[in-house]
Amino acid sequence: QVQLVESGGGSVESGGSLRLSCAASGTIVSTNLMAWYRQAPGKQRELVAEITARNNINYAHSVTGRFTISRDNAKNTFYLQMNKLKPEDTAVYYCNAEFVIDSDASTWHGWGRGTQVTVSS
Description:
By secondary structure, this protein is mainly beta. It is 0% helix and 58% strand. The strands form two sheets. Strands 2, 4, 5, 6, 9, 10 and 11 form a seven-stranded mixed β-sheet that branches. The chain has a four-stranded antiparallel β-sheet with strand order 1-3-8-7, with no helix packed on it. Strand 4 (30-39) and strand 5 form a beta hairpin.
């Protein structure tokens, strides 16, 4: 069974930075997709950034140029560096990933529990 655990959330002032981490544990053969989503109060969960197995990266328009997604395959960990944070970035941030978990190419797809990011003006 694979688990995803986020860390690095917190409270910052507008213009500040935070780095989120998502560590995966369990039997992982390879990674198909790693992504960050966020959900603000009263809003739907939205994609923030994703990185595919071929290192194709996509960002939400609202974070392009401010956020950077990266990964460390050796550690089965991926990151979201968030710079120039704005109050509208306030949300619970969730990591999401799909992994190949055995030699039959079975996959696991799941979510972390989320970490709160609060940006004050």
